Structure to design on (500 residues):
């Protein structure tokens, strides 16, 4: 497993995403309420750029005739056919057991630890601004 | 096993196979029998039986020709029905329904009165202990969709009678039948443990909504296209969440075909992936509600020339689990149980379609 610095924490505020190309893979990194998640930028449906879709919520499974909006900011809809995916675990909403997109671990690390790792690309950052690091 | 022995075995099997026939039609000797049950002013209003108007069958309403020994049309005499249908086909249970077409009319009170009169007639003529001494006849509580409260009242008249085993709706309607205005009917079905039957009738005619572009010119077109209406109803039931709201509801669709199912359900499942947000109460792929809730009558069974294609079609629609034999006696396209399946159809599938599925569905 390799670790890659994605950006400074300050460059990925809550509600934003960053799409990176690493090791031949396109991956979307998301900041959701100051937690970080990463999913492969490939919709399992037609292999298009899933992470370019709308980040939104969803009507939760409900009683008939009721609409309960929830998961605001945690759902991404593929820009092509609108399939909903849970950014937190990569699972599709319509069939979480069979249809999902790969996820990756993301950590926030202080600058000095990563600077010692040869595999990690480095940025010029200040000490008080952590790094968003993607593990793939 | 030699060829002749195999053939003999097959013949023996056919003659001993018990059958539940889910769609047997009966009619009065004359409509005076029905009018006798009707209150005024409805009795006079029913002077002219409308049938299905411009798309009445050009071959005639009863298409097995002739009369019963008692002088009425085919399907009007219980003893003759036993001789012509029940005995030769080894039918253990026949689910009866008259063809009423009350939904051709626009007046909900008139419709309710017609249905009520027919139900009383069925009860008195067909379910009495003399005629139905062995319990071979089970029957349908016919209601109209237009005023669901009147439909519920009619269901409550008969619910609990051991020989009324389902609630019966004409597939001709003013809106797709899964919509919420009709739910009191389904709530009553669930409450009394009565399955819902939806049967071809006045589709697109009289006071009902069109289901194709405009009017076809011929009966052959109308009847060919009736499955379009069944598709509309099925999609409505699945997307409106009727089976989430009424998890005990079971439904059988009669005479609307079934070989269109794979295309329609694949399309619906595919679109659910994009538009689930519209119908968040649908909690799984819509097709996954089929096996638990919906059955299809076999008639009219359309058989491809290639028997292997036929077997494949039956497998694709999961016929073994969703189909129940229906003859549609005595109409022009009636099916005969021993003839509908070629020899390559597995016995297990036939047993379930001819008997076991209906036995479980109707709790017989």
């Amino acid at each position: 497993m390799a670790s890659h610095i994605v950006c400074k924490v300050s460059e990925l505020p809550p509600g934003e995403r960053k799409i990176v190309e690493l090791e031949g893979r396109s991956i979307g990194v998301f900041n959701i309420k100051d937690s970080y998640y990463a999913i492969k930028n490939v919709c399992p449906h037609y292999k298009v750029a899933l992470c370019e879709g709308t980040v939104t919520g969803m009507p939760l499974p409900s009683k008939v005739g009721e609409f309960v909006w929830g998961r605001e900011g945690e759902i991404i809809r593929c820009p092509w056919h609108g399939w909903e995916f849970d950014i937190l675990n990569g699972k599709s909403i319509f069939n979480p057991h069979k249809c999902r997109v790969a996820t990756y671990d993301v950590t926030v690390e202080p600058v000095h630890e990563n600077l010692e790792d040869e595999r990690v690309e480095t940025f010029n950052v200040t000490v008080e601004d952590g790094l968003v690091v993607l593990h793939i | 096993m030699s060829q002749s022995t195999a053939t003999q075995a097959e013949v023996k099997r056919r003659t001993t196979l018990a059958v539940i026939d889910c769609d047997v039609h009966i009619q009065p000797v004359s409509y005076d029998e029905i009018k006798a049950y009707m209150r005024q002013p409805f009795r006079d209003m029913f002077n002219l039986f409308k049938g299905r108007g411009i798309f009445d069958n050009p071959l005639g309403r009863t298409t097995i020709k002739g009369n019963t020994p008692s002088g009425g049309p085919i399907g009007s005499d219980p003893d003759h029905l036993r001789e012509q249908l029940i005995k030769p086909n080894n039918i253990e249970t026949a689910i009866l329904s008259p063809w009423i077409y009350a939904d051709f009319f626009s007046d909900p009170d008139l419709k309710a009165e017609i249905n009520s009169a027919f139900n009383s007639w069925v009860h008195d003529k067909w379910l009495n202990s003399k005629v139905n001494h062995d319990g071979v006849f089970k029957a349908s509580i016919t209601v109209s969709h237009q005023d669901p409260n009147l439909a519920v009242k009619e269901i409550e008249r008969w619910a609990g009678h051991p020989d009324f085993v389902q609630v019966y709706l004409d597939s001709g309607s003013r809106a797709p039948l899964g919509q919420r205005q009709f739910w009191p009917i389904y709530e009553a079905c669930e409450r009394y443990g009565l399955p819902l039957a939806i049967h071809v009738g006045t589709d697109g005619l009289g006071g009902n909504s069109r289901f194709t572009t405009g009017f076809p010119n011929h009966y052959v077109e109308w009847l060919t296209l009736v499955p379009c209406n069944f598709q509309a109803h099925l999609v409505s039931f699945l997307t409106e969440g009727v089976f989430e709201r009424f998890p005990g509801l079971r439904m059988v669709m009669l005479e609307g075909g079934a070989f269109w199912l794979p295309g329609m359900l694949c399309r619906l499942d595919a679109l659910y992936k994009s538009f689930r947000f519209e119908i968040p109460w649908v909690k799984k792929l819509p097709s996954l509600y089929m096996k638990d809730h919906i059955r299809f009558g076999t008639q009219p069974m359309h058989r491809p020339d290639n028997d292997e294609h036929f077997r494949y079609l039956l497998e694709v629609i999961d016929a073994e689990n969703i189909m129940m034999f229906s003859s549609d006696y005595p109409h022009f396209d009636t099916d005969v149980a021993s003839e509908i399946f070629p020899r390559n159809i597995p016995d297990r599938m036939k047993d379930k379609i001819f008997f076991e599925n209906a036995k479980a569905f109707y709790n017989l």
The interface with chain A takes residues 180, 240-242, 244-245, 272-277, 280-281, 283-285 of chain B (CB under 8 Å). Residues 69 and 250 of chain B are 38 Å apart (CA to CA). The two ends of chain B are 36 Å apart (CA to CA). Chain B has 14 helices and eight strands.
